[in-house]
Amino acid sequence: MSLAPERASRLPGTAVPRRCQVAKMKAAVFAEVGRIVLEDKPVPDIGPLDALIRITTTTICGTDVHILKGEYPVARGLTIGHEPVGIIEKLGSAVSGFREGQRVIAGAITPSGHSAACLCGCSSQDGAGTRHGFKPMGGWRFGNTIDGAQAEYLRVPDAMTNLAPVPDGLSDEQVLMCPDIMSTGFSGAERGEVRIGDTVAVFAQGPIGLCATAGAKLMGATRIIAVESIPARQEMARRLGADEVVDFTEGDPAEQILELTGGRGVDVAIEALGRQETFEGALRVLRPGGTLSSLGVYSGDLRIPLGAFAAGLGDHKIVTTLCPGGKERMRRLMEVVAAERVDLRPLVTHRFTLDDIEAAYDLFAHQRDGVLKVAIRN
Amino acid sequence: MSLAPERASRLPGTAVPRRCQVAKMKAAVFAEVGRIVLEDKPVPDIGPLDALIRITTTTICGTDVHILKGEYPVARGLTIGHEPVGIIEKLGSAVSGFREGQRVIAGAITPSGHSAACLCGCSSQDGAGTRHGFKPMGGWRFGNTIDGAQAEYLRVPDAMTNLAPVPDGLSDEQVLMCPDIMSTGFSGAERGEVRIGDTVAVFAQGPIGLCATAGAKLMGATRIIAVESIPARQEMARRLGADEVVDFTEGDPAEQILELTGGRGVDVAIEALGRQETFEGALRVLRPGGTLSSLGVYSGDLRIPLGAFAAGLGDHKIVTTLCPGGKERMRRLMEVVAAERVDLRPLVTHRFTLDDIEAAYDLFAHQRDGVLKVAIRN
Amino acid sequence: MSLAPERASRLPGTAVPRRCQVAKMKAAVFAEVGRIVLEDKPVPDIGPLDALIRITTTTICGTDVHILKGEYPVARGLTIGHEPVGIIEKLGSAVSGFREGQRVIAGAITPSGHSAACLCGCSSQDGAGTRHGFKPMGGWRFGNTIDGAQAEYLRVPDAMTNLAPVPDGLSDEQVLMCPDIMSTGFSGAERGEVRIGDTVAVFAQGPIGLCATAGAKLMGATRIIAVESIPARQEMARRLGADEVVDFTEGDPAEQILELTGGRGVDVAIEALGRQETFEGALRVLRPGGTLSSLGVYSGDLRIPLGAFAAGLGDHKIVTTLCPGGKERMRRLMEVVAAERVDLRPLVTHRFTLDDIEAAYDLFAHQRDGVLKVAIRN
Amino acid sequence: MSLAPERASRLPGTAVPRRCQVAKMKAAVFAEVGRIVLEDKPVPDIGPLDALIRITTTTICGTDVHILKGEYPVARGLTIGHEPVGIIEKLGSAVSGFREGQRVIAGAITPSGHSAACLCGCSSQDGAGTRHGFKPMGGWRFGNTIDGAQAEYLRVPDAMTNLAPVPDGLSDEQVLMCPDIMSTGFSGAERGEVRIGDTVAVFAQGPIGLCATAGAKLMGATRIIAVESIPARQEMARRLGADEVVDFTEGDPAEQILELTGGRGVDVAIEALGRQETFEGALRVLRPGGTLSSLGVYSGDLRIPLGAFAAGLGDHKIVTTLCPGGKERMRRLMEVVAAERVDLRPLVTHRFTLDDIEAAYDLFAHQRDGVLKVAIRN
């Protein structure tokens, strides 16, 4: 083959040569704790149910930084990343309903569609192939148990369940948040069962928390109180729906929220950081009968204070949610974007090419220069 | 007045003389930590929305023992008890829809019907009269914030919301569990959203846990695993619906349950004791996406182990429930009894008269002689 | 008493003299079919659970026109109207939690709070005092079974359940739609369980339909297709959230909607007129598994076409809703207004004083001059 | 080929010879209106996602009789039947998680797992391959759009979503009702959201209605009123959970039910016949706020009487359900059987071999000899 994979990747609709064993691509791989590096790897082979996607844009997630730091272990050599926007390069032999050359996204979570978890309504806990069909976080495969999206090409498993065509007229950056943070953030409001007229607190306004704020507004919350201290994030929170912002550097945020609500507390509190303080704060501001919707990834045991929990007698709910995936979820989120109900483009504060992804990691991991999300383009 | 109140109380339908200020009754009151004693108190006055009930049968709850021991503080002199079966003696001037002489029960929780909490669907957290209409555990008034049911007479507030006529043909003991443990225990299954075909674990088979077991069966669970070590309670658990019983003295109950389910875990785990071990065990046996339904009254902070919680990414739910009350709830529970779907009479292991209630407390507080529940008759 | 009731009604906080039997007020009463007239009536007496409200603003509903035309029968001499904004003039002896002089609204539906229907979560079907506690439409009392709001004074039954204080800063007209059309219209979206990303059709854009459109948007629908032919209503529909408007004079609206959605149909179809054509159209545009949320008041039997119903095998739902009431509902709706999530003031197209209410009926009943809603001020 | 397909079908685990084009089997095919006949057909080929099942037991459904009579059109030559119990003969190349020789069932409805309908929670309306992913009744493939189960072999599409291993110890007849009537009947109670303490009416006690009765009991209904006139079915209804049986030949069943309930009506009414009379009766007996859960297959337009529908203001719900399918549903239903919560074996009143299936159709279509369900054995 005379066509180098690098060039192939830039020609829409050009199939990767099948028999050429040497077809290579660039990919950001976990080398060791502290090092995610750009390497050459073979373009993935695909099975009958898979699709091969040529990535056009992707991004870096806070979870990837946990991986970088060794806080979440993955295999050495694994390609990182779970937020793909791209073009179908090749479809598995048993895949129907799609065509090569289509612009698509896939969720960070790629359910099989046929596990017991999927058929039970909790597809993120997909355990296809396991004895019972459930596996904690089993739906999270990209950049976790299989190669991920920070590469030129990506193998999407169970393609018929996971490929979601991008509506005409939407740019890559407009849909870049759908695979993970928009799906996760919105689910904080959805699983919290936010209702018209609710007061909602959202603890932390990083990318996920900002999307939770937007989701709460989209579902009819009428008073949204965001907790955040960084001015740029406070500003973004207001832009996406926060009615008030509480700065935790100016006093206990739970107390501030209780004061703002005249002691009533909130109907739904969304935790979007993954820390004891925010979890506990979210519980403390709940009215009796309220719901704590937890989105954060915790790194240690949590403590439930007796009083905030009303000794177990407060009719409280605590719900946790891993990012919902699957093509129908992605379709709905892209509808939100297309209908201009929410515009998350301002979250993309910095742009890099895949060639410069190591610099992107450096910026993002250190939260320099007011970064919220980066776009990585091929 | 020639008619002594003691005698009046034994004549069905005989109204307590209204203007006689000296009408007295016997009542079990909290004297000080360690002492609940039978005393003479005035028969309660009633307001326009109240009813006066002549108690025919009541019982003692584990919560009353907490009060006795000073673990849950109440005012000195308060009449204890929240599980009334009796006869309407007098109705407030604004009460309609009932008649004196009717046999009734009232729930342990007596919602007002008009608080924001009631109108929001969480009436146990009734905060009528408070600024926002919510108050943690606010619906629990009997033997907590107002005089309770271990007496000859009981004032029932918001009578139109709370009085539930006993269907003909049901004995006092048949409906004695409805006000509290049946309502609480069943709610463990209901709030856990047990579905047909579910596997359910119930941690602890005291009176509440036994009712949770019965409730899970009533909702269609097909495999119910009860955790209990006392043989009589194990036997009762099987009788009420447990398919298997795990003895925690024979090894970690969570591990036993995981082994019984081949590692899958359970769809719903009900905690019915109020201890860190049982809370944690319930979390550990949950399948991803499962629900921990907590009924216990905790006495300290709780710890959520990171692993069992899947770091917050397991799509788990934790729900807590205070006993649902109100006349419609009571009607439904008495329907269950009348239809012979569940028979809780075997839970009454000992019987006393009100005169002997101090002995009843002694037996029950020390859990002597295999006691499950006592009946206190007037 | 020297103070004429007409004057008393204009002095905020002036209590109506209690013992003066001759205190009179003006009220719009149903005289006979075709005639609703302004008459003098006694200011209502109140019972212990009631409140007396001095009406400051009210409005006329399409249902009142049905009454006027004799299509919905009420007693002669009954005061009409069920949408009150006013000031507490007097509180019943057993009412607590409110104070005279407070600005309040009450819902069109005034649940008792203590009926089985209330305690079951369907308080609009309140049957307090009936044998079982359910009565079809039993919660609708104002201007139906008791005197209504088109008067100088209104007796509000079960005041503790129904009085909702108006937040400071909101004008009468800002909250005038809360008692009925906002509550009803929103409930079309709520009972339809609109979700983020849904496509929703709303059949007819009268006041209720317009509020259904606003409600669907508030809950996260991303494509709202309104059916309407009157240009001013089409314009209002777009202003309140419709993405597209279908004109039924330009062809079968169901076919137009199916074409717009590429044959897919909608997730939720809201019927807001009460006619066979709109009911049937709503059914025909539903995707399999979709929900028809019906708000209209029908005047004859309905026909379900076999095909649109998939012979009963389409996993369809049809839900009907009578306007939700009660103070907590009102509070939430006023929160929506206060938070500026929805502004329904433009619906008030005409203003009258109570003295001129007969002219207001004439305009509204004949739908002259592009009238949407009228404000009737005292 | 020396091995006749008839013999192959009797040897467990014997693979059908792959390359032998002449491998034949017997199958009951729709020949023309009025004639379903046993014919020789090729053993089905399977694709990568399919499984080939050797049928050991199947049955005839009322729907098959509709097909026989030409009331529901299918292609000539199509193999009929959608209730398979059998043994995995061969697995498609992309199928994992199962092994040849396993005893399995598959639901009457075989969702793909990857359609929008599946990912939306209404997999029976599967529209895999269609533009939007929804198709009315699209999940019903066996004996409708592809060859069915009344044959020696059956191709199961999307095998990973649909094959459900039969627990050890359960006979074919014990699980024979799971694929259709148990799943459908139970769903009548499930979609009706039967709660503990509900009163439920079930109109008609054919196989589906009987399963609806069993389902309502399993979910905690405390008063189940069955409508049926045939003594054997009345008896079976009582056995499966009916507390009372109303005979429609002795008077209007709706009036009888209203009388039995003292005028209150029922919380949930399940329609299990598919006729105007039963649909209308179910609506008439509903309390305000109640749910009509419709299971019948209708053959004409339906009429909703204005009064029973409270003019659209009764907070009623009407829900329809097509039999839920998929392996997880089947697993749960088999759990119900294994746990002995419900025993549907008595529904099998007659047994035939596949060779005699024409006689079975004759008996079943004419409802002779008290037939409820037949078992067809290979």
TrEMBL record, chains A, B, C, D:
GO molecular function: oxidoreductase activity, acting on the CH-OH group of donors, NAD or NADP as acceptor; zinc ion binding
Residue ranges annotated for the Enoyl reductase (ER) domain, each copy included: 34-372
Keyword Phosphoprotein: no
Co-factor requirement: Zn(2+)
InterPro entries the UniProt entry points to: ADH-like_C, ADH-like_N, ADH_Zn_CS, ER, GroES-like_sf, NAD(P)-bd_dom_sf
Keywords (A to Z) from UniProt: Metal-binding, Oxidoreductase, Zinc
Cell inner membrane keyword on record: no
Family to which this protein belongs: Belongs to the zinc-containing alcohol dehydrogenase family.
Protein name in the entry: Threonine dehydrogenase-like Zn-dependent dehydrogenase
